[in-house]
Amino acid sequence: MSGRIANIIVIILEAIGLSVSISDRKWKIFAYYTQISNLLTIVSSIVYVLFPQAAFSGLLRYLSSCMLTMTFLVTLFVLVPMGGGFKNLMLSGNGLYHHTLCPVISVLSYIFLEAHVPVWYLPPVITLVYGITMMYMNHIEKFDGPYPFFRVNHQSAAATVLWIIILFGVISVISLLLGAV
């Protein structure tokens, strides 16, 4: 299978998943890291299909692969155990597409079928900006969530700092590992 074919499959799956998300959440999809990473993935896959050799295409694919891996791991190892349920978050609705199929196919395509353009610091910086923004929005009570670890008014300062360290560490390791393959 070529990278182009894999990315066409990702585009189709992303379109299905995003249609479910948009119909359910409308503009609130932009509050979710999962949705942002999947929107970036559909854009990066379209750019890759059209311009597979362009450095910009490789950069977008790297960034979306890092963010999708983060989405997959946080869902599987944080949100599912916190009570979201494996079947509910990984195998049904938009979760089937955004938490399972698209991350797996897209990241495998990036690792095995595409040229790599790693900029290791970019995914951690983008993730940190997103996280701080959501924590601030929770702190001023303009938003509740969308993930339990952003609910700063419902957890201790130590818990908030610990979540920041863990999540920043995870995206940094993902970024370095995907940049090294």
Structure description:
The chain is mostly helical and 181 residues long. The protein has one domain. Helices cover 77% and strands 0% of the residues. The chain has 7 helices and no strands. The longest helix has 30 residues. The model has no long low-confidence stretch (mean pLDDT 94).
Number of domains: 1
CA radius of gyration is 16 Å
Shape: globular
Whole-Å distance between the termini?
19 Å
Structural class: mainly alpha
Mean pLDDT: 94
**Helical proportion, percent range:** over 70%
Number of helices: 7
In sequence order, what are the helices and strands, one letter per element?
A: HHHHHHH
Detail the poorly predicted runs: none
In short:
The protein is an all-alpha fold.
Chart the SSEs and their pairings.
Blueprint: H1 3-25, H2 33-50, H3 55-84, H4 86-90, H5 93-113, H6 122-139, H7 157-180
Helix pairs in contact: 1-2, 1-5, 2-3, 2-5, 3-5, 3-7, 6-7
List keywords for this structure.
181 residues, mainly alpha, 77% helix, globular
